[in-house]
Write a structure and sequence with these properties.
By secondary structure, the chain is mainly alpha-helical. Helices cover 45% and strands 11% of the residues. It has a 3-stranded parallel sheet with strand order 3-4-5. A two-stranded parallel sheet has the order 1-2.
Length: 188
């Protein structure tokens, strides 16, 4: 990816909603290569918030479900992408209750550090989810939004194991539901 991006002389490489991909391309890649890139790595939510702030994308309406947000470790605590998810979420959701200890202090979903990929760690992952379960229950939310595909999988597994009826969706997915459609010339 780095070779292709540099060959194409791109200014940015956008990391998708994946905490591990974000840290791998943003920090681990330059460390392994022993040099900085000739481009900037930007997380998808950083870009979407910038485009929204500049008026290049617009939203219409708000989701009124009881929503809370899980702050992914790799993106928020390690990556520093804290304000953008909250601003995007609040722009399309009218009934948001943040978890206790949200933001930089939010608890891991239970799958951090590669635990989600280690079958032998399944009991530990589910035990760690109990902390997240208590946070979620404190909000009363029936919809849990996150910004990391890995977290989403772990959260869904924890919810299923605990027989909790909570929908999990990605923040970019929620934002996409409320994007204002471009009007054709002559439409009102």
């Amino acid at each position: 990816m780095v070779n292709a991006a540099e060959k194409l002389k791109v200014k940015y490489v956008i990391s998708p909603e994946c905490g591990h991909a974000y840290t791998a391309i943003r920090w681990e890649g330059p460390n392994l290569m022993g040099r900085q890139y000739n481009f900037e790595v930007i997380y998808i939510l950083e870009l979407l918030e910038q485009l929204k702030r500049e008026g290049r994308i617009k939203t219409d309406g708000k989701d009124e479900r009881a929503i809370t947000f899980h702050d992914p470790c790799q993106i928020v605590r390690r990556g520093g992408v804290l304000q953008q998810p909250e601003e995007l979420l609040n722009s399309v959701a009218g009934n948001v209750t943040l978890m206790p200890d949200s933001g930089m202090w939010n608890w891991c979903c239970g799958g951090g550090g590669g635990v989600s990929a280690n079958e032998r760690a399944e009991p530990l992952k589910l035990k760690a989810f109990n902390r997240k379960k208590r946070q979620l229950e404190a909000t009363g939310a029936d919809t849990l939004v996150t910004a990391c595909a890995n977290c989403r999988i772990v959260l869904e597994e924890g919810l299923e194991e605990n027989e909790m009826e909570v929908e999990v969706i990605g923040l970019t997915e929620l934002l996409a539901e409320y994007l204002e459609e471009k009007k054709e010339a002559g439409e009102s």
